[in-house]
Amino acid sequence: MKCYAYIIVILGSLWVSSTLSAQEQGGRLSGSLETNANFFVRDSLIGAANTPQYDRQLFGSEGWLNLNYSNWGFDIGLRYDFFNNSNLLNPTGSYTDQGIGMWYVRKRIKKLGFEAGYIYDQVGSGIIFRSFEQRPLLIDNALYGLKVDYQLSDNWNIKGFTGRQKQQFDTYSSVIRGLNIEGYVQGDSLGTWSLAPGFGVVARTLDDASMNSLVATLNTYPTEDLFIPNYNSYAFTLYNTLSAGIFSWYVEGAYKTEDAMNDPFGEIQRGDNITIGDKFISEAGTVLYSSLSIAPPKWGITLEAKRTENFSFRTRPQSQLNRGLINFLPPMARINTYRLTARYNAATQDLAELAYQVDVSYAPNRKVSFNANYSHIDDLDGVKLYREVFTEVQYKHKKLWKLTSGVQVQNYNQERYEFKPQAPIVETVIPYFDFVYKLDRSHNVRFEGQYMLTGDDEKAGAKQDYGDWVFGLIEVSLGRNWTLTASDMFNIDPGKNSPVDDSGEKQSLHYPRFDVYYTTGPTRLALSYVKQVEGVVCTGGICRLEPAFSGVKFSANTSF
Amino acid sequence: MLKKYFSFTVLALFILLSFSCDEVAPVLNPGGDGPTDDVPVEDQMRQVLIEEFTGVRCVNCPAGSEAIEVLLNTYGQQLVAVSIHAGFFAFPYPESDSELESPIGSSLLSLLEEPLGYPTAVVNRKHFDGEEGRQVGQSTWPGYIAQELEGDPAVKIDIIPTYNETTRELAVDVDLYVEENVTADDIRLTLFITESNIEDPQLTPAGVDTFYVHKHALRDAITAFDGNTLSEIFTAGSVVSRSYTTTLPTLWNANECHIVAFVHQGGSTLDVIQAHQVDVVE
Fold first, then answer.
1. A216: distance to nearest CA of chain B, Å?
2. How far apart are CA A135 and CA B1, in angstroms?
3. pLDDT band at A21 (very low <50, low <70, confident <90, very high)
4. Closest CA relative to residue B220, chosen from B56, B123, B107, B93
5. Would you call B88 and A50 a contact, using CB atoms and an 8 Å cutoff?
6. Most buried pick, A230, A331, A358, B205, via CB within 10 A?
7. Is residue B233 part of a domain?
């Protein structure tokens, strides 16, 4: 806490002294505020129960106030974070704390730059290192340390960094260090092609407590599963973007030295008894990733492929789910936005994944556009994990109305993604539409409709998972400030996992939602009544299982 | 040209420095046998409590339970295990008939904080450095148990049960032998009844196992769920005694029941000082 006090005093002094002459010196203060408040209303029928918020706390909130100031060639900033009975860190738990969640000081002296404090950065596409923030999942993997960069030439830059990863208002004990060289090479004087190569290396030194814990666990393993763990593990990456006319081709190859990792589906055999669950393994890892974009007139084509083997890279092997991630593996499925098309998400697999994705868009004129996407994800043994075909057609009529429609077809390995044993591959077909009609210059009305047709679970004698859903939404925009939304997600044909009543009958439940949004300038306020079914929530390629929600939400966002 | 050479030199130097020294590997010492037979209270060593939170609908919990059995084989009497069926995954199946969901489970969950996921456990009710809370994942249990087993016990616990098979009345005398001064303001004694070898459905990776054998499942507390306050001053050489009586419900198999006693701090600290377990029927 003393450390925070010093930081506040230093930054405060800078501000106070700078405000006197900020105008003359060209000082600039900017910032943003984001806050959420949740009022929990218990509904045990949909599973919104048995958490501290539903049982006794009834209210939870979280917020972030970000302040940035630039003057005299310095960039400084800090962020105040607060969490009051928040379920963001742990969806079934409660987290309360507050303090300075982030601060930084940046300076550039000619070709040398440095940054101290909480650093957000990445190497390449993030495969060996990415420190980032995802508030919806309360991921904040900032590196608390120092970064120095030097401009070797106009087109070549080198940076080195070291520190420890942020863990709420503390840090993990393992030390991370890394180096990254990036460049730009113009192919010819006409600029018809260019290269943007890079090389990076990141190392993690395991702290003694984590190593002692790892050794104690290994001591309980059968002899054939034992291994000598390493304190230091190294990840290397080599990447390049080739740009030539309408083509842009990114390719990255990464290698990680032998490192202890947790296999959630590990098998431990003792006598005739085989236990499946968490098990430490020690393997070297690789990732190969490539993305090719082609953009001829009216067309947009993207091909992506990725092969991942044993590439879980964390501050310590004991960290699980979205904790302690040093790197970020790019997701290989489309990020969907409609309620039902986004219900089943393919979380990135860091131990074994072979995937490719094709995305094609075509806009013959200003009125019509087409988009099609195909995702294909297996593990390295050829087990099907995820398939998705997504199509979309958009038609605009004289700025008066716009219709977006299409079909999504999914195969989703629920057993693997959600640890649900014996669950079959969930098969869905979802037709959808989104229609916006402009009533006048400042009034719009929007309708959304989706229907999820789910496959049969023959073993259970019921529809898979929750069965069939229908979703409808109406949104009215009243002028520039107000937007009202009403929607309902209805479990029209319940499935194996749908709630049952006292007589054991599956229930067709409604999950309504009502929102009021008020927007003025950069400020947006939202008040919502929500009943939400449990599901996997993803941001980027990182997902987690969220329990059902029932209650009222309020949020406020602004920037200045 | 010089700049290019410079960059490659920096790169080569960095890689060389990274690998320049071989590290000294940690030493593994697999196996180990703690005392399995009852030892007299004067020979009692440090004994650690692990409270596992589990549920019949938790697919990964059998792996956690198996890990605890391995640890019990390793540490013997030095490890006292309690499996608490509570929380999100503890909702019974229609065919569940052993009432595994503990009546004090939700109170213990709120006392010891909700976990991020199951299986999960609390070791000696401690909040270890680097952990988000007291609840810790399966892969960390052996390390924290080993850490907590270091040193000598500040208090040794003797439990003397007297069980009447006819009335099912259980009398428990507990003597606490204070070996070192304990200066905590709020010292408490908690007594649990656990039961082993309960056959009842459990979700496993192979589906619902109707004949799954549950071990050391928490049945109830003889004291308050968060312990009874001990008003005595814990000075070395003193003995603190308490007596309790309770009647076992007919659903419980007394021959498979255990009495778990542990001395711990109250208030916000909760750390367990010493734990001990004996069978109801010796």
1. 5
2. 45
3. very low
4. B107
5. yes
6. A331
7. no
